[in-house]
Amino acid sequence: MAESTSYVGVVSGLTDRSTYQKLTSTVLISKAVQWACFNKNPFMQMLGLEGFGVDAMKNLDAFGAARPTGRIIRYDTGHTALSGSVFATAGTNYHVGRFGEHNPELVEGGDEWAYAWHEMWQTQFIPVVDTEDNTNGLIDIKAQKMAGMKQKFVEGVNYCLLGHASAPDYGSYGPNALYSDLPNLISVTQTRTVGAIATTNSYWQNGYKAIATIGGGGENDRPIVMRRSMEDALNDQAKYAEGTDDYALLATQGFWQYYGRLMIADSLSGGNKGAFGTVAKYDAAGIKHYAFSGHPMVWDPAVTVPYGATASTECCYCIHIPAFFVSIRTEANFKVEDWEGPRTHDRQKTLVAAIRLRYTPGVSGRRTHSVFYNLPANPD
After folding, report:
1. Three-state SS at 353
2. Side-chain half-sphere CA neighbours of 352 within 13 A
């Protein structure tokens, strides 16, 4: 059978074999998978560096011993799998499948859940006949399949956090359904109820600035209008009492290239012969980036425009690091469920393995974040 990625609440076109046991008796926490996840894509590299530090990003052994620094990444425990009203008078039917779990109805306390865990699986299957016909080990099918499964899982985590258009995250319990992927957490149209708080509350509205033209031209193509608009927007965010000068910028490729023009023009006109400003710890970790007002800027191929922005334009998210988090459930910290053989009553004799992650991205405060949006598509 082909490999598949399965997301709770989404099952259109995806393989989710409930006839197979997903949770095996032997549980392995694979630091190698987690380390690869935070070293693969630019956005995940940014999260890993802020969350675990420079040494952990450069060395698997150091990463294996690292705990979150308190910035962006955190390990939590908990049981939340649903969101909704606490004061419901009737019970809620919730099918979870074999070895699943659910929340009982709550009858007191708050008004509704703030965030809920998402659960992502990457599953691989190998027909037993394939391994039986390869008894001399000429090809290590298990190792090949496991490697492919890990690679796909790393890509899937990045897609879910960034809300990539091709990521199947629109299910009942997927990131988009709870408005906790980046385009919804930091949006343009302020109609999202994020973390169960309505954006009609002014303290729960992020900053946003449309930039209709980049300016520039001439010998040194300097998009000066873009730069002034960026500075203006960040100055607006700094006025809030909870705001600190601690941002990470995440751009589309086109926005990144626009900013690259500016960096080249500045360095040439200043006689620096192409020397760009950088951020020391990002240099130390080997993460490709630019610097804007001392803040690191990276781009990721999976970045999409924020909710409410015009499609096919460029954008850049200004993430306020103290108020952005990715909560990873401690008990499901990149679990790798190793190969499990078929059971006697299975009609199709198949080996199955899985990687599992329970997590949620979110913001503890919203208005210190900002986004630059609706820049003309970059023709480069």
Report:
1. strand
2. 22
Bridge partners for 197 per DSSP: 194
DSSP element (H, E) containing 275: none
Q: Which sequence spans correspond to the domains of the chain?
A: 4-178+325-360, 193-322+366-375
Distance (Å, rounded) from C-alpha 299 to C-alpha 293?
A: 17
Is residue 139 within 8 A of residue 125, CB to CB? The reply is no
pLDDT band at 334 (very low <50, low <70, confident <90, very high): confident
3-state secondary structure 29-95: ECHHHHHHHHHHCHHHHHHHHHHHCHHHHHCHHHHHHCCCCCCCEEEECCCCCCCCECCCCCCCCCC
Q: Provide φ and ψ at 379, rounded to 5°.
A: -80, -5
Query: Which residue has better confidence, 207 or 133?
Result: 207
Dist CA 37 CA 153 (whole Å): 8
Report d(CA 70, CA 205) in Å as an integer.
Answer: 24
Helices 31-40 and 42-52 pack at an angle, to 10 degrees, of: 120
**71: how many CB neighbours lie within 10 A of its CB?**
18
Give the per-residue pLDDT at 80. 46
Q: Which two tokens stand for residue 325?
A: 């988090």
Reference 342, options 153, 62, 128; nearest CA is 128
CA–CA dist 29, 103 (Å, integer):
25
pLDDT tens, position by position, 220-249? 778 889 999 999 998 888 888 888 899 999
Name every residue whose Cβ is closer than 8 Å to that of residue 121 and which is 6 or more positions away in sequence: 5, 6, 7, 16, 22, 354, 355, 356
Residue 302 φ/ψ, nearest 5 degrees? -95, 0
Rounded alpha-carbon distances, angstroms, from residue 119 to 62, 98, 126, 170: 27, 15, 23, 13
- Report the helix count and the strand count for the chain, using DSSP H and E: 10, 13
